[in-house]
Amino acid sequence: MAIEQISRLSTGGATPKVGFVSLGCPKALVDSEQILTQLRAEGYDTAKSYDGADLVIVNTCGFIDAAVQESLDAIGEALSENGKVIVTGCLGAKKDASGNDIIMSVHPKVLAVTGPHALGEVMDAVHIHLPKPHEPFIDLVPAQGVKLTPKHFAYLKISEGCNHRCSFCIIPSMRGDLVSRPIADVMLEAENLFKAGVKELLVISQDTSAYGVDVKFRMGFWNGKPVKTHMTQLVEALGGLAKQYGAWVRLHYVYPYPHVDQIIPMMDGNVLPYLDVPLQHAHPAVLKRMKRPASGEKNIERIRAWREMCPDITIRSTFIAGFPGETEEEFEYLLDFLKEAEIDRLGCFAYSPVEGATANELENPVPEEVREDRRRRVMELQEGISKKRLQAKVGKTLRVLIDSLDSSGGVGRTSADAPEIDGVVYVKPPYEPNRKLKVGEFFDVTITAADAHDLWGEAN
Ligand code: SF4
Question: Radical SAM core domain: from which residue to which, for each copy (predicted)?
């Protein structure tokens, strides 16, 4: 582009500014990143405060009641502080009992409402209420897009929606059936992220094991070679790419289907020995009431086999305590499973009836205090398991990715720790004065202490 053209573009009218509030899960975060990337591509600026913005977009979450309230409050605040508000995200797709749009009923002054994963609709609404700059600075968009996570890790969304119909979940009614992204697009995004300095890529979706089912595992092309739209081929290709950049790939939301066994031998350092497998329960009757995918799989045997193939594997899972109809016996079956499985990283939620979920119609709901008590019992059991498993790491030297620095050194994560949901390692800096801890870099750290959640160590 000639210099005259650049100056003509840059001296045009004031650049329209959009404020952005991003709520919800990592999948919503990826939607936010795509909207921000598109805004930047079209020449919009982002504003850091409500009064500096010409318009505000709020990306909402509608999963549980507390998230709905948080989203409605955020919309209210944006309306009173700015006045021009577009709403997107899961809450945008929710209706109240009489079939009315929840957001419009509470906040009728909102300019437009869309559901999740609606980049096109959001941009249409932005164009109506804040016309786009005459000529976009397309060259200002970094190839990796705009990221909301720190520069050294990023989420990579491989598909949208879900073909399952778990009875406690309303995501399919909000996000629709599974739609897998073309494998070439996913790989290109991964490559751009690595080129931009990302050292850890977190693969997310509603059901990572199902990647490609909707397109019958269609053949795609990456780097001139055929690659199937299939989880195993995707992980293999991502692992190869991560190796070139000395980076990590971490897998989330993996259901324990038999083909997952083929992933375990790929966990060689670049594909992390880490599987986030949301099991939710162990008792067959409860899993059946939950309508869980892969509920017929023998999970204990599968976990045992994974650990035999890869002794360092970290297994993360989430569970629900007090699901409708759960008897004390079924709950104790879950406790026995947890004692045997020794899940490394575990989250447990007391069942919370989500509006619109079919599980709310099941017989024999468990009283709230029993649900809470069962959640507490799971976490109490897990505390001991986690303590024991972390204690076994003391004395070992582990690779740690540094996330932040503080006055006593740095805080980082090993292969066993996904950001925000797992533990951390508090790292003392190396003794050599010219070797300093740096955010986004890997260090070998000798572990000196552990509690039930975190580790402490010294960088070598
Ligand atoms: S697998 Fe079940 S819980 Fe997960 S998104 Fe699909 S329906 Fe919801």
Answer: 148-388
Q: Cα(172) to centroid of ligand 1, in Å?
A: 7
Question: For ligand 1, is residue 164 a contact (CB within 6 Å)?
Answer: yes
At 112 the three-state DSSP class reads: strand
Kindly give, in sequence order, each residue whose CB lies less than 8 Å from that of residue 376, ignoring residues fewer than 6 positions away.
Answer: none
Rounded CA gap, 27 and 43, in Å?
25
pLDDT digits (tens, 9 = 90+) for 417-436: 999 899 999 999 988 777 88
* Predicted TM-score of the model (pTM): 0.75
25 is in an annotated binding site: yes
> According to the annotation, is 310 in a ligand binding site?
no
Query: In this structure, what token pair is assigned to residue 286?
Result: 């409860």
Query: H/E element holding 73?
Result: helix 65-81
Confidence of residue 375 (pLDDT cuts 50, 70, 90): very high
For residues 99, 105, 111 and 113, what is the CA-based torsion angle, rounded to 10 degrees? -40
Please name every residue paired with 154 in a beta bridge, in sequence order, or none if there are none: 201
Whether residue 61 contacts residue 91, with contact meaning beta carbons closer than 8 Å, is answered with yes
Count of alpha carbons within 13 angstroms of residue 126, beta-carbon side: 30
CA angle 130, 131, 136 (to 5 degrees): 120
Q: Is the CB of 172 under 6 A from ligand 1?
A: yes
User: Which atom of ligand 1 is nearest the CA belonging to 162?
Assistant: 6
